[in-house]
Amino acid sequence: MKLSKNALAGIALLASAALGLTACGSNAGTPAASGSPSSDAAASGEGITVYNAQHESLTKEWVDAFTKETGIKVTMRQGSDTELSNQIVQEGAASPADVFLTENSPAMAQVENAGLFADVDKATLDQVPAEFRPSTGKWTGIAARSTVLVYDKNKISEDKLPKSMLDLANPEWKGKWAASPSGADFQAIVAALLELKGEAATEEWLKGMKENFKAYKGNSTAMKAVNAGEVDAALIYHYYYYGDQAKTGENSKNVTPYFFKNQDPGAFLSVSGGGVLKSSKKAADAQAFLKFITGKKGQEVLKTGTSFEYAIASQVAANDKLVPIKDLQAPTVDPAKLNSTKVTDLMTKAGLL
After folding, report:
1. Confidence band of 133 (pLDDT split at 50, 70, 90)
2. Please, which residues bridge with residue 117 across strands?
3. Cα separation of 265 and 154, whole Å?
4. pLDDT at 21
5. How far, in Å, are 98, 182, 239, 242, 253 from residue 245 at the CA level?
6. What is the pLDDT, as a whole number, of residue 100?
7. CA–CA separation, 112 vs 85, rounded Å?
């Protein structure tokens, strides 16, 4: 049967439309280039899932700013460093997490050692100085917190302060200082000591600590104990003091922070980490989130916000109220080498856990 010109034109039009639909279908299944946010994810309302062990308020600021800029939604699942790292390891390749954020490095090293992180995009790594990220490039630093001894200025004069964190194991400090040994913060400090001084020295220090210290649940509680005169000093992170001072100061009015400096283990600067899970189905968006929080806008949240953690990337300076990082004289520690399993073994052996 001979077809009219109009009929032929209609068939051609239908064929063209069918080809167009096929092409659209194949593109929808193709992942976006690494580091480039997917417009499909923003348009569909789908987003990424972040397992967040960082302070919830800080990460929420990052999330809100990222979503506002990219349109990509972010779902947060909150937990502690150890809780979420163990969960990710148990979930393995089936984990629904796209991104993992922590307060300290050992939890990141645990997930890395399980082979569950994808490589971080080079553009993101380039934003973060080498001293604030692991040598492996499997995750990156996003913020930092300094070890500090807060002390009761009414009880201890400056000349009586310990020259090193290691001195806290000496007999003269018996019953005079506090810590929160069950927390990931303190265990990160011990992990740095292990890396810097070795197992024998760490074991000896933990033995002296057991004899000398008073245990409290949480860094803020330990600082409150110093402020209330229950104990002379506490080994914590710096931001508990600065955060309280920025509010009412009621839990730190009798407290002064002391920085050990001189590359002492007590001057350890703990790196908070961020990584993209190898199993992520939205890798491009996950990488974009990590790039954003280590970029200038993300780091400005640290500089101007109320977390009082250190900005470490994109040449953003720390909050004006903090001691500049260069003046902390922190020891050099590769975050990838902080061993949480060995630390908990040693602390358990010492009777601290």
Report:
1. very high
2. 277
3. 26
4. 34
5. 36, 25, 10, 5, 8
6. 98
7. 10
Amino acid in the structure at residue 90: Q
- Rounded CA gap, 232 and 229, in Å? 7
| 237 within 8 A of 145, measured Cβ to Cβ | yes
> d(Cα 150, Cα 188) in Å, to the nearest integer?
18
Maximum separation of any 2 CA atoms in the chain, in Å: 107
> What pLDDT, on the 0 to 100 scale, is given for residue 121?
97
The tally of CA atoms less than 13 A away on the side-chain side of residue 278 is: 15
The one-character DSSP state at 274 is E
Strand boundaries in 158-212, DSSP class E: 177-179
Residue 145 near residue 272 (C-beta atoms within 8 A): yes
Please tell me the distance from the alpha carbon of residue 248 to that of residue 265, in angstroms, as a whole number.
Answer: 31
DSSP element (H, E) containing 41? helix 39-44
- Mean pLDDT, residues 72-77 taken together: 97
Under the banding of pLDDT at 50, 70 and 90, the label for residue 340 is confident
